[in-house]
Amino acid sequence: MTGRASQHLPVVHLRYSSLLVDCFKIENMADKKIHTTNYFDTFIEVAEDTKANRGTIPPSKGDKKTVAEMQYELIAKNPYRFTSDDVLFQVYAHRNELTKEEQKKAREEFFSKGQPCLRASPLTKTYGFGVHCDSNGKVALYGVETDRYQHFLSDRTIKKVKAMRTSKK
Question: Are 83 and 15 in the same domain?
Answer without folding.
Answer: no
